[in-house]
Each structure stands twice: as C-alpha cells, then as structure tokens.
Amino acid sequence: MRKGLQRAAVICLLATGALSSAMVTMAGTGERYLHVKVDDAKNGESVNVNVPLSMAEKILPAVNKGNLHAGKVTVGEAQMEGIDLHAILDAIRTAPDNEFVTVKEKDQDVRVAKSNGNLIIHVKGNKDGDQKVDVTVPMKVVDALFSTTQKDELDIAAALRALSDAGDILIVTVQDASQHVRVWVDSKNTSE
Amino acid sequence: MILVGKIALALMGTAVAGVGLLCSEGMVEVNVVEKSPEVHHIFVVAPALLAPIGMHFVPRRHLQDAARQVKPYMPVIRAALEGLRETADVTLVDVREPGEHVTVVKEGGSIVVDVQDKDETVHVSVPIRAVSSTIEELAAASSENQP
C-alpha cells in the first residue's frame, strides 16, 4: 500500500515536471517580434532588425529623456497646432469602414481609410520612381496610443502592448526606385 | 598517507570550486582572423567573471568620467539587459553589404557579434550577465566618488 502511494507520488511529480516544462516551452514560443527590413537593390545592401516586443516593452518605460517619459510621449501644443487628435480619433473609431480622406494632387495621391478594424494610410507619388508608402495600424493600437488621460500625451508603451496582442501584421511598407522598407510584427525570430 | 590523500583531495576540490566560480558567468570568446596583407589569427577565451573583477580593481579616478556618462542611462541599460536575458534566441541585427556581413545575435545567455568582410573575420561572444556586472561595477564607481 505504502509502495503504491510512493509510486503515485513519483508519477505525479514527474507529470507536474513535464507539464511545467511544456508550459515554459509554450510561453517561450509566445514571443512576438517587431521586424524592420530595408533592402537597397541598387547598392546590394540589406538591413534586418528584429526586436522582441517584450524587450521593447521593458525598455520603453525606462527611457526618460526629452518628450519621452515612462513610456509616454508628450506632444506640445505648438506641434498639435490646435488639432484635437482625441476628438478626431473618437470620430474615426465610431465611424463605419470608410474612406475618410482622398487627396489627388499633381505629384501625389493620399488616401486615409478605415477597413476591417485597421486604420490605413496610402501615399503614392505620381512620377516614376516616386515613393509609395502604405501604413496599416490596427485600431486597437491607435486606441492604446491615445488611451492616456492627458490630451497632449501618446502612450507608446500601451500601443506596443496592443501591437503584441494583435495578430501578424504588416505595418509599414515604403517602396521607391531602389529601396524597399518593411515593418511588420509576427512570432518568427528571423526576418525571412 | 591518508592525511596526504585528504590534503590532495581538499586542494583538488578547492581548485575545481575555483574554476567553477571563475566560469560561473560564462566565457568571453574573441576570434579575429585578419586575411590581408598577412594572415593573423587571434583567439582568446577567458572567464567572463574577470571583466567585473578587473573593473573592481581599476582605480576609481580612471573610471569616474566613464561612470558619470553611463549613469543616466543605467535604468535603460538594466531594462535592456534584463529584456535580452529573458527573450528567446534571436538575430537582433543583420546587415549585408557587398563584401561585408554583420550580425548581432542573442544566443543562449550571450550576445554574439560576427563581422565578415574581405579583410577580416571577427567573432565576439560575451555573456549578458558579465556585461551587466561589468556595467554595474562601472556605474558604482560614479557613486563611490561622490562627496
């Protein structure tokens, strides 16, 4: 009887150990990465930067310099030029999917839209070799950015956390005649 | 005879413990191969613990200036090193140019920097814990010098 109990205890201990190991492994694979990739085909250069979001979340609140403090950046009144970003964001958040701004100029086209829970900005030069910029930001990230109670502050740390919780997403692409820049988030620890 | 054996055992135990302690923070590895004009090969493997210990014995007046400069950034450095320690292995930076390749990788508990160009190959591996201890020693030099 006693031996049986001892065996059961050993089996329970081993099972707990195996479960803990599995949980640690699963937690490790949950890491999310912010990738920046710059390819310059003309000069044959490429730069890849992969930043674990958990690391960025730890570093950001520690930076207290200039307008950045405790993971928040203060935007001065002069820079806002009287624009109430919180009010604009609130209007966008409550609006249905739509194209909000379309500007067609001789040199470039600009388009700002909301689609499938993302804020989308397209800027496209109209000359050959001009830059084409696409920015896609999940509304959850935008909400987190403006979640601070201060009107002149942007909560970068909260935005990073929201970005970490968002799925795999291509945030920025910039393409011109020779360079291609991409910024995206996924769970791979390489840029490939 | 038994006494001699005991003494030998004690000495061996002390030596093993000493080596273990010395290697407790991992090893710093530096491997430099110069390809031209002549081939030179420098390969150094040293216990990482020597860096903070060495830093401890450097006269504080020589570290004061560096310590003063690094001190304001210590919260960021601490957060970065802690974040690095906890994150999974990752290639942090990878830069390729014609004839040149630079990588900064977090591998195990170390930061590994590899540089390859047409003239030389450099490989440096430093345990993150050792970087942390060394910088803490440096920062401590600043506070110790304050009146």
Report on this model:
The complex is a heterodimer of chains A (192) and B (147). Chain A has 192 residues and is α+β, with helices and mostly antiparallel strands. In chain A, 34% of the residues lie in helices and 36% in strands. Chain A has six helices and eleven strands. In chain A, the strands form two sheets. In chain A, strands 2-1-11-10-8-7-6-5 form an eight-stranded antiparallel beta sheet. In chain A, β10 and β11 (179-186) form a beta hairpin. Chain A starts with a helix and ends in a 6-residue tail after the last strand. By secondary structure, chain B is an alpha+beta fold. In chain B, 48% of the residues lie in helices and 33% in strands. Chain B has five helices and six strands; from the N terminus they run αββαααββββα. In chain B, strands 2-1-6-5-4-3 form a six-stranded antiparallel beta sheet. In chain B, a hairpin with a 2-residue loop joins β3 (90-97) and β4. In chain B, α2 (50-57) packs parallel to α5 (128-145), α3 packs across α5 (128-145) and α4 packs antiparallel against α5. Chain B is globular. The termini of chain B are far apart. Classes of the chains: A alpha+beta (192), B alpha+beta (147). The interface between A and B is medium-sized, with 27 and 21 residues.
Could you outline the blueprint of secondary structure elements for this entry?
The complex is a heterodimer of chains A (192) and B (147).
Chain A (H helix, E strand, L loop, with lengths): L1 H28 L3 E8 L4 E8 H7 L8 E2 L2 E3 L2 H4 L4 H10 L3 E7 L3 E8 L2 E8 L6 E7 H7 L7 E3 H10 L3 E7 L3 E8 L6
Antiparallel strand pairs in A: 1-2, 1-11, 3-4, 4-9, 5-6, 6-7, 7-8, 8-10, 10-11
Chain B lengths: L1 H21 L4 E8 L5 E8 L2 H8 L2 H11 L3 H13 L3 E8 L2 E8 L2 E8 L2 E8 H18 L2
Antiparallel strand pairs in B: 1-2, 1-6, 3-4, 4-5, 5-6
Helix pairs in contact in B: 2-5, 3-5, 4-5
